[in-house]
Fold FAD-binding PCMH-type domain-containing protein.
Amino acid sequence: MEPSRPRLPLLLLLLHFSLLASPCSARWRDGGGVGDLRESFLRCVARRSPATAGDPSRLVHAPGDASYPSLLDSTIQNLRFASPRTPRPALVLTPVTADEVRACVVCCRAHGLTVRARSGGHDYEGLSYRSLGRSPRFAVVDVAALRAVRVDAARGVARAEAGATLGELYYTVAEGSGGRLGFPAGICPTVCVGGHLSGGGFGPMMRKYGLAADNVVDAEVVDAEGRLLDRAAMGEGLFWAIRGGGGGSVGIVVSWTVNLVPVPAVVSAFTVHRLLLRRGGHDEQSLLRLLTKWQAVAHALPDNLFVKMSMEAKTINDGDDSTRHPLVTFKSLFLGNCSDMITQIDHHLPELGIKPTDCREMNWLQSMLYSYGYTNGQPAEVLLDRTLQPKDYYKIKLDYLTSPIPTPGLIELLTKIVEDEDGSIDIDPQGGEMSRIPESGTPYAHRSGYLYNLQYFVKWGGDKNVSYEDDHLSWVRGLHELMTPYVSKNPRAAYINYRDLDLGQNVEGNTSYEEARVWGEKYFRGNFRRLAMVKGEVDPDQLFWSEQSIPPLVVSTRDAGLVSDS
Ligand SMILES: Cc1cc2nc3c(=O)[nH]c(=O)nc-3n(C[C@H](O)[C@H](O)[C@H](O)COP(=O)(O)OP(=O)(O)OC[C@H]3O[C@@H](n4cnc5c(N)ncnc54)[C@H](O)[C@@H]3O)c2cc1C
Ligand SMILES: *[C@@H]1O[C@H](CO)[C@@H](O)[C@H](O)[C@H]1NC(C)=O
Ligand SMILES: *[C@@H]1O[C@H](CO)[C@@H](O)[C@H](O)[C@H]1NC(C)=O
Ligand SMILES: *[C@@H]1O[C@H](CO)[C@@H](O)[C@H](O)[C@H]1NC(C)=O
């Protein structure tokens, strides 16, 4: 009996390992020989990238390596996906030049790995570094080290590498232009331009200058064949797709060249709050009137005036009792001085009752910090801190409004917001330049007629009991459900930079365009078909695959009604 005893457990152990497809045991045929993924990959990049040949291990990090966990975790922003249960990539690759990005792409293809690009790791569903499948047959190509920003103030352009943060871009643009130029993009300084511009990028200057992606004039992309292409080389189809079609689908952006925009020496801003202590009475009536008036005007204000609204729950301790009340905040950015802004507000939205003491003047760079929430005149260098945004647990959903929410809907919002102390809602007005760009001008389709976007957040700190996750998720999904009657329909629109896997996802190994239309047309409306056709041309084998990558649509010339002599 004795000698045969270990056999069964050993067999079970082996079975167990192969079912989990442990990356450490990953084996395949490489040039006739069977080798370890890491060693074979090292040889491949050394061959492909002479500059790396001396020390390829600087570029390649496998699960057994000491460098792997810290590199993988470095920019995981949503701690929900930092858990040990999250399926990990087979390799983390850390190129520092465009040539190394090319080598990574070619070697991933040669080793049967799909590729997920990562710049800043802010993807709300973590798709730049995690898979929902069981088998880690993908590599993360992390371009965080490619982060140079060069400003040519005379020509009014900047070149920013994918791993540059918005904070670094804003700071360098302001410094390089003596404060004359700015760039319209999002408010979170740690978001990287690699993902952000790939998905659009909205922020407090969008009413004047559109999305970040609307201001891209050139780019360098490594395609699925490992070629480095600029705008002329990639052609207008691919160049259209990368400006809002979402990251991670058609190539790895190495750098963007963007048009900078003029900003005045003085801009101004206010932040004012309305706390609703008693429901059902006069205070609520007057708040509802203000919310209704704001919805009527905020999308139609002069382009240089952006007034956003947010809601959250405020806990008030009242003796032994602590109760939550709706807190509504209005926050502005005006590209001009306080006296001009107050004149505009008094004209369009007098119900807000803005006083000169509510208004603050500052330069544009400071206003980017202010919009993010650093409202006390902190030094602009804060924008250079790549870890400024605290890592948290969160879930986000987003809707668009094509007509104002009527009073009953507003009352439902005020009721719902106090149900979760970690929940909040941001409503950003569009209009202005956002509605003048044609729907098919870029992949971002929510243009004319889309008045506002509503962002439903629930975010809880690492110190809080993680088992509350289910409650938070059901609150934010319930809120989204509650708003159904009031928001855009057919399709119920969504925004790819606010990725939401509740909308649907690709099936690994059987990704279908028809199935993907369910979520794809929510993000892109009719532009989804064109994106899928570009994907079909540039990456039909889906080297760049994720749960929400664009599926390839290869239309035969006969079906498309086109004449081709090939
Ligand atoms: C705190 C916070 C605040 C935010 N605020 C705003 C805001 O104000 N406005 C707004 O519009 N959005 C905002 N976002 C959303 C943000 O714009 C997107 O999540 C964006 O895609 C993040 O880019 P990243 O490079 O940091 O993230 P990543 O997770 O690295 O990438 C996001 C997606 O792009 C792909 N990708 C990354 N790098 C590249 C590349 N070089 N080439 C091709 N594809 C790439 C990834 O594979 C992934 O699919 C915010 C997000 C967070 C977490
Ligand atoms: C504000 O700016 C306007 C120009 O738009 C200027 O005419 C006015 O004098 C400025 N007011 C103050 C108080 O600086
Ligand atoms: C976390 O919360 C759950 C209830 O939601 C509770 O059962 C559990 O004991 C809590 N755990 C800790 C460590 O507080
Ligand atoms: C793949 O997807 C298509 C369309 O959804 C479906 O008809 C087909 O049965 C699927 N094939 C497999 C092998 O699952």
